[in-house]
Amino acid sequence: MPFRDECGVFGICHQAEASRQTYLGLYALQHRGQEAAGICSGDEQGLHLHKSQGYVADVFTEAVLDALPGDAAIGHTRYSTTGGNVASAAHPFLIHGRFGQVALCHNGNLTNTEALRTRLIADGHTFTSPSDSEVLLALINRAQADNLEDALVAALRETQGAYSLLILTEDALIAARDPHGFRPLGMGHLGETVAFSSETCAFDLVGAQYERDVQPGEMVVVSRRTGEIRSWFPLPKVQPRPCVFEHIYFARPDSLVYGRSVMVARREMGRRLALRHPVEADLVVPVPDSGVSAALGYSEQSGISFDFGIIRNHYVGRTFIEPKQTIRSFGVKVKLNPVRHLLAGKRVVLVDDSIVRGTTSKKIVQMVREAGAREVHMRIACPPTTHSCFYGIDTPKRQHLIASYMSLAEITAFVEADTLGYLDLEDLEGCMGDQDGQNFCYACFTGDYPVVPG
Ligand code: SF4
Q: Are residues 10 and 182 in contact, defined by beta-carbon separation less than 8 angstroms?
């Protein structure tokens, strides 16, 4: 199984405090990965790297940031789903090879990593981690090319799948996005400073202005010496299919992703959900935090009042990205607590972003009932999740996705809800302004994979 991660990347160039700004950028992207963090900075002496397991605030201290000098930096927050040596798989990766020092970090999952890795190992290459970033660096270093940019293009031509990547060299900061544009990557400015980020919330924190997305298939090269910015599209063009799940669950609601407000999209999902699945009820309650925007939309459309009937403990990690089942089960009670005063005797519409295995939803419904709710009507702001993701979002194997093997009636009974309603695919497409349903990846709802999984 490929080593899969879902991560946040941030990079900045022509900024006196590049590593400190990157630290702040990663802080804003912490929700995208909490297992490891790393920054590589560059000054006249070369590139400097620090990475470790843990939260951004724990990995970096004043002293660590002081040891990352220079006016350019890239950084990464990482989440992993498989076992193995997590510390060794932390990004960025730094090599000293044919093209000097090259550091790379990326968000997304290459679908042909194992085939590439097997070939490189047969050629005598050794790897220090299971990360596909290391495979990319090996391909770059071995490419038949005279310069790094051409070597990068040659390496990317061999890859399939998803990547939004940042590369720092002694000469340049390079941003690139795969031709389908599965994972987001925005570009911003602050005076002469150029920044790249998975989400715009990181630009807000460092005071940069979001300018545009790095386009699917685009490579943006920022010269560290002259500040010149070049853009080109070196890879074969395909229909872009950015991940719709970023808007459903993964991104922060205060971010723009693919140039669209996540908050606005989620609210619209809630409105359409209310139109599609109305119910007589007293209170709309979100499953915090990712159900909040959709619940607001449901409440606005239905006229049923909204309240925070469940409170989240924000000092604990998120259920969806906890890697161990033992923590996940325990986590529901640790993370969520009902407000009995609000729920007792009420007919509750419980709004969540998605149902994955169903076990967490069942526990939340039980929790709301135990708090005194008379009825619990569950509403889900996306279609049934029936297929796994191969492009960098950590969904379980297909056989563990409840909607892949249970009918709507069976899921309703399993989670012990009075009624259950999902957003229609057509409504989701409408929320994204996708008239013909071809402009985003919806594969986890349809099985229509834009790139055949390796
Ligand atoms: Fe996103 Fe689902 Fe496509 Fe993965 S399969 S990229 S989660 S829409």
A: no
